[in-house]
Amino acid sequence: xxxxxxxxxxxxxxxGLANLxxxxxxxxxxxxxxxSGITIRSKSRTIDKKVETLDDVPEWNYDGSSCYQASxxxxxxxxxxVRIYRDPFRGGDNIIVMxxxxxxxxxxxxxxxxxxxxxxxxxxxxxxxxxxxxxxYGIEQEYSLLKTKNKFVTQPLGWPSSGxxxxxxxxxxxxxxxxxxxxxxxxxxxxxxxxxxxxxxGTNAEVMPG
Length: 210
Known about the structure:
Elements: H1 3-18, E1 26-33, E2 40-47, E3 60-63, E4 76-86, E5 95-104, E6 112-114, H2 119-129, E7 146-150, E8 153-156, H3 183-196
Parallel strand pairs: 1-5
Antiparallel strand pairs: 1-2, 3-4, 4-5, 5-6, 7-8
């Protein structure tokens, strides 16, 4: 089975699961950044009814000693939900929950402090201090799509089987299957963001194929 056929088979499988009746319950996928400052971790929790607001989502916890955020002697890290999104993968009323991580300041568990990669907490303090201001900022996320040539080799999507593609020029903001590669994946990601409620401004192909 080719990579494309495998992807289509997997999609059909999960599409079928998405239509199963969840008996009025929803799945909340709690997400946070681990101690690397880069890697996303997540785990799922069943909630007994549809979530209307953030107040309907309980705090949770996880083992910080396995996420580079706590010692084994005091490993509990508290998850505090800060934003909810519709889940474009599971569909229905299921949600994705973005969380801040907090650790216990002392072994008596009397107070919590931001975990080592909870930079949002410190940024929010600054933003809240100047609520009357209207800051201008933007976030641009660039990424490359890779394909598997064989079990030893991966390469950017759209590159020739050997050597390099033509020089930069025709690929930026391109359209057309001969120079814009992976458009279906980009569009699926775009629509998933809009479904979830993520404020995404737009997309464009960049200067390199893939």
